[in-house]
């Protein structure tokens, strides 16, 4: 600490002061971008633009959304923010201002039949739901409380139940439905890309257990691309009960903390970020029991965020925001390479390799 009298006082220049104030506006008001996005999703603006042929003027939108004409100037202001935030595109060089979809708003169009499309409406509605926002508002109070370990999330502490738990519907059945649908939409997005990018990782495998594989969407995609792999999906009984009858994939109902069906490789895709370090070590120890030695091709495949500041700044920011989402609402976290190394070593694995980066995620092979 600097000695009294020698502290460096920041004296901003006039330009720095004005910029600092503008930055303060931005950071204090970013929640309004989230709320503007929520509004666009609730009004179904992306679907309306899609149905209007992929481009729409403001009067077209007002008519198609059945809004009062008096709202046109307000809609212009909403769309201006959403375009500036990268949620829609606009054509500036036409006489009539026109709004278009971009890849982000395309994900918010309902009813698209395309390989890499899953409708992200529930992901947005879950993350900006009253319950998530209230949990975030309680963050400072939560920090001050000396809570027993394992520390409940602000969501659990405030609402009395954890998220994605069998008791969550008692808090609000609609929230529980939206969160489940949102997680499924999020996790199923870009499966085709992941399978293509993971070609080397799956090639030559004889068997694979997709641990926490849900209704088998990923496993079916893997078997389609690699018919030689005998694929098993492990999930909780209530999930497996609803899995489609499918000869291509073998479904096992069980608890990963008890045992995991043996296979040459076990995959944990978007699973570990939901759990704290202690539980991750327990899960990884079960994975280790389920696979053969490294010489026999045994490995665990982890697909999850690998936080890294060497990335593109917006990708890094997205990773950190996703980590805050986990911190506020779950006991889980997003992990850096150091964090991953620590838990795989604690679980008794000898080595690991980040074999690929896909967007903000990494594919980590872990060897016994
Ligand atoms: C976030 S999803 C996993 C996403 C999936 N791997 C994917 O990429 O689409 C979490 C899944 O873990 C399952 N699950 C939670 N606890 C489990 C446990 N103890 N044993 C087995 N599955 C569990 C849930 O039922 C849910 O299907």
From TrEMBL:
GO terms for molecular function: O-methyltransferase activity; protein dimerization activity. Coiled coil: none annotated. This is O-methyltransferase 2. The lineage of its organism: Eukaryota, Viridiplantae, Streptophyta, Embryophyta, Tracheophyta. It holds the Pfam family Methyltransf_2. The active site is at residue 273. Residues 25-110 form the O-methyltransferase dimerisation domain. It comes from Paspalum notatum var. saurae. Residues 139-350 form the O-methyltransferase C-terminal domain. One of its GO terms (biological process) is methylation. Gene3D superfamilies: Vaccinia Virus protein VP39, Winged helix-like DNA-binding domain superfamily/Winged helix DNA-binding domain. Keywords: Methyltransferase, S-adenosyl-L-methionine, Transferase. Belongs to the class I-like SAM-binding methyltransferase superfamily. Cation-independent O-methyltransferase family. COMT subfamily. PANTHER family: O-METHYLTRANSFERASE (PTHR11746).
